[in-house]
Every structure is written in structure tokens, then in C-alpha cells.
Amino acid sequence: MHVLMIAQFFPPHFGGAGTRAYNLAKALVIQGCAVTVVTAFRSSNNNNEGKSKKRLSYTEDFEGMKIVRTRTLNLTYSPLSLFFVYISFVFSSLLGMYYVRKIDVIFVMNPIHFAMFSAVLYKIFFRKNIIGSVDDLWPEVFYDSGAIRSRSAKKFLDFVASVCYKLQSTLIPVSQGYVNTLITKYHIPEEKIVVIEPGVDITKFNAIKNLEKSNNKKIIMYSGYIGRDYYDMETVIKAASRLQSENILFILRGFGGDPVRIKQTIDDYKVKNVEFRTDVLPRDQAISAMKMADIFLLPMSLVMASDLGLPTKVLEYQALGKPIICISKGEPGRYIMRTESGLLMKSNDPEILADLIMKLLNDNNLAYQLGKNGLDYVNNNLTLEKIGERLMNIIHKVSQKS
Prior knowledge:
Blueprint: E1 2-7, H1 16-30, E2 34-40, E3 57-62, E4 65-70, H2 79-92, E5 105-110, H3 112-126, E6 130-134, H4 140-145, H5 151-166, E7 170-173, H6 179-184, H7 202-207, E8 218-225, H8 233-242, E9 248-255, H9 259-268, E10 274-277, H10 283-290, E11 295-299, H11 312-319, E12 324-327, H12 331-339, E13 342-345, H13 350-362, H14 364-381, H15 384-401
């Protein structure tokens, strides 16, 4: 079985989208599939060395996969420039046709509503069906955050999303929270939807050693994307300001979003027990740094669409066997409660967050048990081997329809 995956974000990009694409591709390799991934160049700004410097595309082998990398635009980050970067990948990803031969199914990953344009052309050329991974509810997250208000823009984007979803033989949302929108708004038949969580490469987490702490402070950590449409860093900073007399250090490691605003918030509240780090670490170093945490934070912004997903970082937190404090009214909170791996609050009240942090720090047995529950859950349900088995069932059915 040969699977073609189209994913603009893929390692060494290890944000949520890149991690999910890697996990699914690796899960298929474990199941014995041949996997070809069409993705963007290694570095986000396309400043690549060696053979890629003067080329529009090149191939490489990576952990049993064939990777086809294509050049995209190099623009300063902004919502508008990001749109053009996405569009550039729609066109450059078609260069992958030069390197791809016989395939059995097309797997479209990220960003799904852009990558679908090139996936459809691959579908026409190879006459194979498309499986789509729904990582986020686009464009709904932009509506809920207020980024898009125009009725005509919403109508157009809803039309694009509807067409993209309906062109896929099977949709694989990462969260049960997305299913209702897919069925009721976009009229996707329920039998075409199969929820599969992103999974976690537990072997990599087990293989990396812990770093030594430079002090004896308890570490409360957030690691991942820091955009305000998804995560509420201000509540975390306010909670930290209430705990400055405690032997606690907050480490917020993030990328994207608005780091200047977060730094300004830390200054405004005169918080001395928060370290905000924006340096991007190699994957093994990032995992080592995460292993220092005593408690992980998942502060969802409570914007409806963003609070319906299941961030990949939750599974990684669980894989490290540490308790989680979650701010959520949606699927992340339900998942934490279902797996009994953390404490939940349904408001952005910094006083409650500070109290929950102290509750875990003062009750070692509770903290240990919550961390163990999360680790047991991913070991029993969400390893790449188990995710791969579920994916193979879908791929066999879809490939037979081609």
C-alpha cells in the first residue's frame, strides 16, 4: 500500500500541524505502508543550504518515508502574508508529481482547505480517492475570534470549506468536538466521518533523558503555539502574579501569535516568576526541556471553535506522565476529565488557576495519580501502532473505491 500525504507543515516543523502529520505518516510506516510526503522546504524562511539552495524541489529519505520538499514564498509573518505562503504551496506542491509514481490513496493534511486544491489535481491525475484530516475548524475559528466579520467573506469561505469536505471520501477529525459542525453545517454524511486522535510517538518520549533542574523550584509549564485565538496566556500570567511568594517558576515556551503582547503583559503585571521563551529547539531538546515540568497547563481561550479541538500537546503532556490543569468548556476539558489526567476549570479566573496549581503542588499523591492516568491512557490507546491500525482500516476501504 502506497500512501501520498500532502502536508505543508512537517518535521523539522514541530508545531501542532507538523507533529500531527508526522505521527500519522509514521503510524502508516509502522504498518508497512510506503509513504511519500509532499511538504515545504525544511526552514520556515526557505533559507536552505546545500542541494536545496538553488532548486524549487528536492527529495530526501526520513525515517522510512520519502519526503518531497518544495519551495514556498518567503514573507514576514502576518495573516495576509501567511495566506500567500499557503497559496504558494498549493502551486509548488504540484512539483511532487514529478517524483510520485503509483499510489493507492491521497492523504491531505495541512492546511486542509489550501492543500485540497493540489490534492484534487493529484486525484484527477492518479485517479485515487482523498482522505482528509480535520486538524482545525477553518474558517469557524476566524469567525469566533472576530478576525472575519464580513457576511460575504463568510459566505464565500463556507462555500470553499463545504466543497473541500465533500470532495473527500473520508474525513478524519482529530476531535469528537468537530463532528457536529461537519454534519449539521456542511451536511457531511456521518458514515464518512471517523474520529482519530493524533496519537503520540511514545518511544521518542521514553528515549530522551531528563534535564537537571538548575534550582529546586516547582516548574509550571506551557509549551506550544501561543496565539490568543487559541490559548489564554494572560490568565496564566495573572495567576503567576498571585504566586510570586511561592517556590514556583512558570515557563511559557511558544511560537507564533503575538509574543510582543505576551512580553508586555508580563511587564505590566511586574511578574518575576515567569520565563517566556520563544527559541525553537530541536525535537529531542524540546522533549528534554518539557520533562522538567511538574505541572502542564492547557489554557484554552474559550473561543468556541478553538475549544472544540484536541491539541496534540495534550497527548504529549500525558506521555510525560505529568498532571495537567486545563481551562476549557469544550473537548479538551472533556478529554481531560474522561482520561482522569488533570484538573479542569471552565472560566478564565486567575484566582482559581492559582488555587488549582497549589492544590497539585500540595498533594503529591493526586499529582502522581493524574499523571499516571494520562500516561496509561496514551500507552493503551494512542500509540502510533494503535493509531496506524485504525488508519489502515480506513485506507483499505477508501482505496477499494478508487
